[in-house]
Amino acid sequence: QVQLVESGGGLVQAGGSLRLSCAASGRTFSSYAMGWFRQAPGKEREFVAAVSRSGGSTPYADSVKGRFTISRGNAKNTVYLQMNSLKPEDTAVYYCAATRTSMFGIAGLYDYWGQGTQVTVSS
Fold first, then answer.
1. What is the C-alpha separation between 35 and 58, in angstroms, rounded?
2. 60-63: long-range contacts (C-beta < 8 A, 24 or more apart)?
């Protein structure tokens, strides 16, 4: 069992930055690849970024490539999402999730989810 708790969301102006954190409980954190997804009102949940178990693979959605950076600290059981150059279209609830697979972009293959943290970017 893995429990995930996100933090770091908030209100920021366009062009600003936020750093999201996801703290995981349990001793098996390093056994999971970790992903960030987001869901805006009236839209489906979409993949944002993921990091493999080793940290060696970090795929991103095209919409955030070059602006967002995902990383993980296995010693701290934490995964981070550094978000720079934020745009109003980045406004959403952001979720972290854990998967044992390498199909990082498929939400249905994630075993555990956090409750989400709201990110609002004003224009």
1. 9
2. 63/89
3-state helix/strand/coil string of 14-30: CCCCEEEEEEECCCCHH
pLDDT by 10s per residue, the chain, length 123: 899 999 999 999 999 999 999 999 987 888 999 999 999 999 999 999 999 999 999 999 999 999 999 999 878 899 999 999 999 999 999 999 999 999 999 999 999 999 999 999 999
Q: Which residue has the tokens 């199909």?
A: 103
In 3D, which of 110, 91, 85 has the Cα closest to residue 22? Answer: 110
* Interior/surface letters 6-22, b for 16+ CB within 10 angstroms, e for the rest: bebbeebeeeeebebbb
Q: Tokens for 75?
A: 């010693």
φ/ψ bin of 8: left (φ > 0), alpha (ψ from -120 to 50), beta (otherwise): left
Task: Give how far Cα 54 sits from Cα of 6, 50, 58, 75, Å.
Answer: 21, 12, 10, 12
- Cα(88)–Cα(58) distance, integer angstroms: 24
